[in-house]
Structure formats: C-alpha cells, structure tokens
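[job 0412] stage=fold_complex status=start
inputs:
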Amino acid sequence: MFSVFKKLSILIVLSFASCNFNIPITVENPPIIHLDSESGIYSTKIGRSIIIAPSYDYVTNAIYTWSINDSIIGINPSLEFTGEELGSVFIKIKVETESGSDEEEIRVDVVEREIPTVSLVGADKGYTVSIGEELTLRASVRQTSLPTTYSWRLNDNIVSDSLQYTFIADSIGVYNFMFRAENEDGADSISTTVEVVALPPISWTFAQTEYQLIAGRTIEIGPVQTENLEGATFRFAIGDSIVQEGEKSTWLCSFTQEGDYLIDITATLVRGTQTDSLYQQVTLKVISTETLYYRPKSASSQSKFNRVYEYTPAPGQFINEKKTGGFDDTQTTPETAVAYAEKRLNNSDWVSLGGFGGYIVVGFDHSIDNSGDYDFGVLGNSFSGSSEPGIVWVMQDENGDGLPNDNWYELRGSETGKDSTIQNYAVTYYRPSAPQMPVQWTDNQGNSGQIDYLIAYHRQDYYYPLWIEEDSYTLRGTCLASRTYDKSGNGTYWVNGEFDWGYVDNFSSTDRLTGDMNNYFKISDAIDTQGNSVNLKYIDFVKVQTGVNVKAGWLGENSTEVVGFFDYNMIK
Ligand SMILES: [Ca+2]
Ligand SMILES: [Ca+2]
Ligand SMILES: [Ca+2]
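[job 0412] stage=fold_complex status=done
writing structure:
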C-alpha cells in the first residue's frame, strides 16, 4: 500500500511541474473533537454546574453546536451545564468548518449531593436532668465520601467538635443545644433542649395493665421499669384493703378464687419538703382451671407449627433485606410481616430475629404435651463458631381464645440464674432519620450503641422494620453475656461461641439431639419470673427471642435465626 501512495504523490508533483502551477493549495483537514473525559461520561451533583471543555483540532472559523434532543443549548467551544434533575442527560457537540464536521455524544450523570444527615435520640422530646447529673448527648451522622466537620453549640457557643458532648448541669434552667454536621455539599443540624431541675422527675413503665392468672399459680404485677424511684413506697390495694406496701415495686401474688380484681398501685416518694406520687390501676382476671382449653391431637394433627402469630424482630442487617432476606418492600404492616415469616418457614428458609429482643411467636394445631423430657424442637442455622442464642418462652392458651395473649414462661437454659444474665433487660431502638444509617439504641442499664449499617453487604435503605409505625420501640427480655470474640486479634475472624444448652440457633453439645441445626426443649424447664419451676402440663405457643446484645465486627449484630418449629413428642 505504502509504495502505491508514494508513486501516486510523485505523479502529482510531476504533473503540477509539467503544467507549471505555482499557487500553494491549502485545503484544511476536517475538525476533530477530543473530549476531556475519555469515557464520554461526566458526573455532577444536582444543582451544581460543570464545564465541559473538549479540545479541538482544525477548527479555524468553526461553528460549535451543543444540543439536547436537537435543541441547542450552547454555541461556544465549551459548555457550562447545570444538573437540575437526577438521572442521565445526553448532550451532542457538533463542530463544523468549511472542510467538514465532527460530532460526539456525551453523557452527564446528575447525582444526589452528599449532604450529611444528623440524628439525635430523644431530641424531639428534650431531656430533663437534675443538678450535678451528667448527660452525654450522642449525635449520629450518615457517612458520606466527603470530609465532614461537627459542632455542638450550647446557647450559641461552640462546646465540642466531635459527635458527642457531655453536659454537666450546675444550675437550674433550660439549655438549648444544637448539633451541626457540614461538608462541601451542605449541612444538617438538629436542636434540642435540656431542662435542669432540682429533683429528677419520677416515672414508671407498665408493659401491661391487664393481667390474667390460672388459679394456684403466681404472677408478678407492677411496673417493668422505674425512673428515679429509689426510696419510694409502693402500695398495692384491692378496694380498701392494702395487699402489699413497701419498697418492692412489684407484687408477687397468687389467687385460688376465680374472679376479676381491680388493683390500685401507688408510688410515693418524699424528697425533703417535696412529695411526688404516681398512680396506676390494673385488672387481674383469675381463671379457675388450667386444663379447660387443652387441645388434644387428632388424626390430622401435624407435628409442624401451623401458624406465625407475631413477627417483631429488632433492627438488623437482614431486616427488610431483599437479596438473601427475601423481603420485597411490601412488608409494611404487622400482617404482611407475619405472612412473610410464615412463608419463609414453610419453605424452610431462615427468618432473622434481628438484634437483642427481636422475637417470633408461633402456634400449633394441637397442644404440645409436657412429657417430662424433650418436647419440641426449633431449627436454627448454627454451626461451630456461629451461635446466636435465642431464648425460648412458652405459653398456654389460658383463656382459650386461640391467641397468644396469656402469660409467657421462660425456659431455663444453661445461663439462667448466673450473675452475668440480666432479667428484664430492655433495649429501645430508634428509627434512623435517613436511609443507609445505623440504628441507634439505648438500654435500661444506661448504655447506648448502634446496629451498624453494613454498606458492603446489605444495602436496603433501613434496618429498622418497615412495619413498625412508631419512631422508636422497646424490646424486653433476658440478656445473656455474649460469647463473641475476635479470634484473629485484628478484626478479620470473629467467633460467636456456643452456650451449653437451652437456646435456639446454638451449637450446643447437649440439646442438638439429632446432630443437626435443631435444638430441643423441655416444657418442664418453664420457670416464672422468680426462677421457680412452673409445672405446665402442656403449651400452645412458642416464642423465640434474640438473647444477646452484641456485634461481631464486620459480621454485624448477633441475631437469632429460626427455620422451623415442631412437636418432637409426635415423631420421637
Ligand atoms: Ca389466649
Ligand atoms: Ca444471625
Ligand atoms: Ca444464626
């Protein structure tokens, strides 16, 4: 090829020479566009502009035309483009000269700004503390890829440049706080007030105000939590008769006579010249016999559970999760969440209970008998080094209405009664203020923390159950000291160690009778709130609840998984 061209050009030179032309011919090459982005793709944040400035060759007297869908948006060599809507925009640049033209299409991706989002647990209600008390305010910020600065202001003075600030109240009054996070894309802030009072306010929390009891059994009546009531006198009265009065905030009672009782509960606290009191009335229904609603097995009875009654997990990395968790954004009511759990279990897929306190309640088409030995099994997904203990509770349908609205009894496990085991542990979870944020929590022991957002693994917007309407919810139960540790010492290899016996999703050497992922349980292990055995002849409902509050580094929070429930008496 090369030699042909060479000969051709020589011929032309010869022919010019022979005709004796001396005028130089200057025909320019057609224009060429060189984009300043190799891929032809540009990115800008919404509301921001970028300058697209290609370089060009052979553009003497050129005409430049920038267009979107044939409408012209620019006639200069470079274009300033402002992203007004999220999404991709296709822009054409055409250059024309007398010698020809060139054209390129580019894409501009208009993306969200990475404005930080802040949240602060309890900010909407404000805080009340007494003189001398310390209050640590902990803000949470949705992380972005941009460097972000923080500031805490107290009555307009900056007092901290970190996420948290510890306030010590030294005089009575109302203090205004504001936390602000800022980066180059924008800022977000949240304000709250702290009222400092002479004496801390008293309060109590009742988990229920309607109680029910089988005659002959005992029940504990009273608040599940009290605030600043140390030294108070609690009085329990039925009509004019005082049944208990003293320092104890709960009344452990037993009735032999069936009937309905109204119980008046009063707490009185004297502090110096000030006397504060609280009052709550509760009802107690005493039912005469425990075998009344026993449901015997029939020929059609199944060993497998037949219904999920409630699914209330704690927040967690598998909650609302679509890839392995099987959610699809339609689980926005308790009923659809129950349907989800039921479908998963019927397919032998795991259902995650999320972090501490998350639970599921299932029932059977018959009552499960107390054989004195192992009575039922729960399938989890434990293996050596991956135990996430779920505490088991059982219930009889005492009032025979077919619903699990009666008394739960915990099943004793290897950790029951140990000093490290916390009864009546409670964790409150708070809805994040924006997608892709961790879920903050506080507990009733004065601790706080968060369920981490694991962006590398589970990217659903929220780990807080979509079907919980309230912006916070409290889960109560028994909390075991965790056996989670970092075996590698550098955060790469975490172990969730096993417990001896008595828990779901636990690699137990004792109660995995069939050597698989099933743990087996005895109704004879049922205990009351005092740890005393309760002799239940049968049960109708089973609840499993995540029993630890711990994170295992990059593995995230411990969360019990359940896969199935069955009456072992029917198949052993
Ligand atoms: Ca019931
Ligand atoms: Ca888990
Ligand atoms: Ca598990």
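[job 0412] summary: The pocket of calcium ion (ligand 1) is lined by residues 397, 399, 401, 403, 405-406 (CB under 6 Å).
[job 0412] exit 0
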